[in-house]
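Narrative of activities, Objective 1.

The group set out to show that a structural description can be obtained from nothing but a protein's sequence at a throughput compatible with the screening campaign. Below is one input-output pair from the validation batch, recorded exactly as produced.
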Amino acid sequence: TGARPGILAMFIEDTDRLEWRLLREQLTLEGEARQFLTFPEARPVVAVTCTSRIELCAEDRADALRFRNPTHPAGKLPALEPAVLSVC
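Output recorded for this entry:
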């Protein structure tokens, strides 16, 4: 309904660590996420998160990516920072 901020979670399956690093370093995931956030359908989305099976199973999840929607008013709320900001 758009009444509450939403977070779009993208799970990238069948990716090894090297491929995941390349996606991150070449900004492929960031480009796709940021392009999506420009579409009208993304208006209720406060952030996009990207993770692979490696991050789900690892103790250190610093490789997961989060991209905040700069046009969403809730994107700057301190309470949502852990969900909308990348660690790295």
